[in-house]
Design a protein that fits this description.
Layout: H1 4-7, H2 10-13, H3 19-32, E1 38-39, H4 51-62, H5 75-89, E2 98-101, H6 104-115, E3 121-126, H7 132-138, E4 142-147, H8 158-163, E5 169-175, H9 187-200, E6 203-207, H10 223-226, E7 234-239, E8 252-255, H11 258-269, H12 277-288, H13 292-313, E9 328-329, E10 340-341, E11 344-345, H14 349-360, E12 362-363, E13 365-366, E14 376-379, H15 384-399
Parallel strand pairs: 1-12, 3-4, 3-5, 5-6, 6-7
Antiparallel strand pairs: 2-8, 7-8, 9-14, 10-11, 13-14
This protein binds pyridoxal-5'-phosphate.
Pyridoxal-5'-phosphate binds at residues 43, 103-105, 129, 175, 179, 207, 209, 239, 241-242, 247, 252.
Length: 402
């Protein structure tokens, strides 16, 4: 008989599979069975990859750029990342301080594998992106969850961070704009966190995946602008998946101290060797070609965001912070917990998301997946018509609870 304990590692037994992918799979199965499912669970832009980027990928294949590349990625792409950081932020980095990975997710995985020892603690503000805690655990570290408050617009709170610091604190993960809340941390709060990180010698892992999708004025506040002294202890994580609608191409990039990048390259050389060569050339076209795509995407998202927030806020008992970035709304439904449908109590976000899927044919992601059970995440990377229809169904479903 198969014995999990005997066959599988302790490391893998302590983590769960990605809950967002699970909801998506259930929604797809229901749709395949003929149900009219409105899907708000997806975490990717609904636009196709820009044509010039696709063309660059095809050209790379036609020209035979289909072999192994350096483990760190092709030099041209690493140089393009440096040029982008210089142009957009004024930061000076060299190509040897850049790693190209198989998506931003894989870059983060490499970072944690490269820096964590058993017992090292990593501060993770919650609501958090689903993959941070399991990635830290798979690297032998201990995730330490730092709760953020809805009534502070989910801004990072230095006083709360301070409460979770111990002698074992090794790193802090920042994600602004955030998935799932859409929150953007304020420069003032970042400056205080930066001071703690600098004095404590922690590594800052800044997941900047949504920096191009910011609904405020000017540039997104960033910890390296709040305190440039942190440059030598910060690793930036980014990629083309969200900004250029390239989720399936699997290209991300990490930028940081040369020693950390070198260690990450060692891991990559012994695991994936390198990201797919044609995808790297496509990403090069994305970073060096016309930059209007993220801007157009942002313009397309604005009316959807406005409608979503307004209609959620109009539902009795529901509150929703307007997201300042990314493409998610994260409303609080806790006023409905404890109510019943056909005698069965809705006892939290998992039960409510299941209820929305079964009774309203609306797919969403329960906040429990992000460490925040009062909430549910809806993606607005879908048409305004879908959002309008979805909101009607959600309102009806909530009104049917007793
Ligand atoms: C989507 C996402 C990523 C990584 O995306 P990849 O598809 O792996 O490039 C990283 N962080 C956050 C917060 C995300 O939402």
């Amino acid at each position: 008989m198969f014995s999990e304990k005997f066959v599988l590692s302790d490391r893998v037994l302590q983590v769960a599979p990605s809950p967002t992918l699970a909801v998506n799979a259930k929604a797809k199965a229901l749709r395949a069975a003929g149900a009219d499912i409105l899907n708000f669970s997806v975490g990717e832009p609904d636009m196709p990859t820009p044509a010039h980027v696709c063309a660059a990928g095809k050209k790379a294949i036609e020209e035979g750029r289909t072999r192994y590349t350096p483990a760190a990625g092709i030099p041209e792409l690493r140089e393009a990342v440096c040029a982008k950081l210089k142009q957009e932020h004024g930061w000076e980095y060299k190509p040897e301080e850049v790693q190209i990975s198989c998506g931003g997710k894989h870059g983060l995985f490499n970072i944690f594998q490269a820096v964590l020892n058993p017992g090292d603690e990593v501060l993770i503000p919650a609501p958090y992106w689903v993959s941070y805690p399991p990635m830290v655990q798979l690297a032998g570290g201990t995730p330490v969850i730092v709760p953020l408050q809805q009534d502070r617009q989910f801004d990072i709170d230095p006083a709360v961070v301070a409460r979770y610091v111990t002698s074992k604190t090794k790193a802090i993960v920042l994600n602004s704009p955030s998935n799932p809340t859409g929150a953007v941390y304020s420069l003032a709060a970042l400056a205080e966190v930066a001071k703690m990180a600098y004095e404590g010698g922690w590594l800052v892992v800044s997941d900047d995946m949504y920096e191009e999708l910011y609904y405020g004025e000017g540039k997104v506040p960033h910890i390296l602008h709040a305190d440039p002294r942190l440059k030598d202890q910060t690793v930036l994580s980014n990629g083309v998946s969200k900004a250029f609608a390239m989720t399936g191409w699997r290209i991300g990039y990490s930028i940081g101290p040369r020693e950390v990048i070198r260690a990450m390259n060692k891991i990559q050389s012994q695991s994936t060797s390198n990201p797919a060569a044609p995808s790297q050339y496509a990403a090069l076209a994305a970073l060096t070609g016309p930059q209007d795509f993220p801007h157009q995407m942002r313009e397309a998202f604005l009316p959807r965001r406005a409608f979503f927030v307004e209609s959620l806020e109009s539902i009795p008992g529901v509150s929703c912070v307007a997201p300042m970035g990314a493409f998610y709304v994260f409303p609080n439904f806790s006023a409905y917990y404890g109510k019943k449908f056909k005698g069965t109590a809705i006892d939290g976000s998992v039960a409510l998301a299941d209820y929305f899927l079964d009774e309203a044919q609306v797919a969403s992601v329960p906040g429990a997946a992000f460490g925040a059970d009062d909430f549910i995440r809806f993606s607005f990377a879908t048409s305004l018509t879908t959002i309008e229809r979805g909101m009607e169904r959600i309102k009806q479903a909530l009104a049917a609870l007793q």
